[in-house]
Amino acid sequence: MDMSSHMEANAPNMRNCTVGNQAHIEPNVMLGYKYTNWKEPLRLGDYPLIHSGAVIYSDTEIGNYFTCGHNVTIRAQCIIGDRVVILHGCTLEGKVIIGKGVKIMANVYIPSQTVIGNMVFIGPGTHFLNALFPMRKLGISGPKVGNNVVIGGGVTINPGVVIGDNVFVASGTTVIRDVPSNSLVYGCPGVNKSLPARFGKRNDPVQIFCGLDLWNGYRDDDSWRIEDFFGKEDWLSDSDNTRDINTK
């Protein structure tokens, strides 16, 4: 760990993790939580900002410039790309893949086997589901979300649903079926329509990260604003969540 990293008083529990350069980690954080049959320490990239109350399990890999709000739980075997923001009260249940440039607002629930693409905004109080028949031995299937997607607040996304690229999901929508690329979805149950031209087709990284305390105090350049987030992300179609999130 770089000596310029900032660890506040009441040092966080981080005996089972590797942390990159210039980390800012608040008190009462648990990094690399050891669950039954854990194998690898948590791997956390450069420039992380982790607020108090966060718990992140072992066997998870997180990229650079990660911002984590208060009381966030990220369970085992998650793969999270660069420049991801997860705000307070969110839960990732493990075996989740999240791409690059993703902003997840407060109190979002993401179950196992969910895949989130690049440059995605997820509004507060949204819930993803992975079991059509809970408490029955009928298997689970998490939703899959493409690139450049906006999901409003209070949305419910049913198990196994696939949302394409450049989709806008209106707040309060219940998504019960697959959504093709370049669509607007609204209502309960959700109705798919062609995406109006005024919605545009790409999320703006500057707008997604605007107004947050990202990297303040220890990152003095704004090169992230012009970085190309739109690489060839073949892993999005790969169900094997052990692949490197940065594969191109």
TrEMBL record:
Keywords: Acyltransferase, Amino-acid biosynthesis, Diaminopimelate biosynthesis, Lysine biosynthesis, Repeat, Transferase
Source species: Parapedobacter pyrenivorans
Similarity-based family: Belongs to the transferase hexapeptide repeat family.
Alphabetized GO MF terms: acyltransferase activity
Lineage summary: Bacteria, Pseudomonadati, Bacteroidota, Sphingobacteriia, Sphingobacteriales
Protein name per Swiss-Prot or TrEMBL: Transferase hexapeptide (Six repeat-containing protein)
GO BP annotations listed: diaminopimelate biosynthetic process; lysine biosynthetic process
PANTHER family, per database record: 2,3,4,5-TETRAHYDROPYRIDINE-2,6-DICARBOXYLATE N-ACETYLTRANSFERASE, ACETYLTRANSFERASE
InterPro entries named among the record's database cross-references: Hexapep, Hexapep_transf_CS, Trans_hexapeptide_repeat, Trimer_LpxA-like_sf
